[in-house]
Amino acid sequence: MLQACIALRLTGENERDYNRHVDDYGVDVNEIVKVIDSADVLVVRFAILDERLLVDNRTNDKDGPLIAVVPKAESVEERFKSLKKLRPRFPLPEKITSFMWPRHFDTFRDCGLCKRIESRLISLGGEDMVTRCREAFEHLHKTEQAEVVNAITGGEGYQTLWQRSR
Questions:
Q1: What span, in angstroms and rounded, lies between the C-alpha atoms of 35 and 105?
Q2: Hey, is 26 helix, strand or coil?
Q3: Sequence-ordered strand ranges (E) for the chain
Q4: Is 37 helix (H, G, I), strand (E, B) or coil?
Q5: Which of 100, 128, 130, 143 is deepest in the core (most CB within 10 A)?
Q6: pLDDT per residue over 22-49, tens digit each?
């Protein structure tokens, strides 16, 4: 059981109490919240997905923040190049912060992390970000569900280890 996500409670107007424990996978939700709140550019890697969640909080006169589901990069250099293609009016960031979420996407959402990302993006880019966030999150959710079914049924990229006798 993921104890780190139990009992979110409101502590003030639009504030949440993120005092939680570290779970069995070493996930410290408090640290992840700090990253979400402070990183200019963030990439979230999910355990069973080849796609990544890219969040670029930088804005200028023409462009607001960005949330996108992007392919896995083969190197840090490739990630910086792909970001430059996506955001040509921005200089390369000094760093891209990245972390691995070792659990299912539903747990990421249930921990309040999707909401935290969405809130930050709305504060930077307005209500238009609600739809963009939800589309990205829904894509990750559906892609992960399809991957789980693929693994269970021995689909592409998976091998059945045990089969029921007929």
A1: 18
A2: coil
A3: 10-12, 15-16, 41-46, 51-56, 66-71, 97-101
A4: helix
A5: 143
A6: 556 667 888 999 999 999 999 999 999 9
